[in-house]
Amino acid sequence: MNYQNIYGVKTKVRVMDIREITAEKIRAMSDRARYRDYYDFVMILKKLKINLKEVLDLVSKKEIRETISTKSILNNWQIAKQDKQADQQTIYYTEHLSDETIESGLNKLNFKDITK
Question: S-S: 42 plus which of 10, 66, 74, 105, CB 3.0-4.6 Å?
Fold first, then answer.
């Protein structure tokens, strides 16, 4: 991707495809309970046109360490929601998302468990 900083220096930077970033967020939400993962996932859905079916197909092609499931994502959300105050200290965000907005985004995830 071409990039120009505030000093006018032009360069190219390597970035992951947004579908791959989204796939990694899904895997992260299934593996751990960090508010930041949920925030990032819902902001991606909100701001960009993402085909979730395509992303879920990509998830299933990645290295699967542990089963990835909507159940574990929703269970981890309950933990992350309780710990969000501490995790928000590390997020530089431009928009506040309510818990209801995040839950609405999570409800778009409806897939069969992805196993090893």
Answer: 105
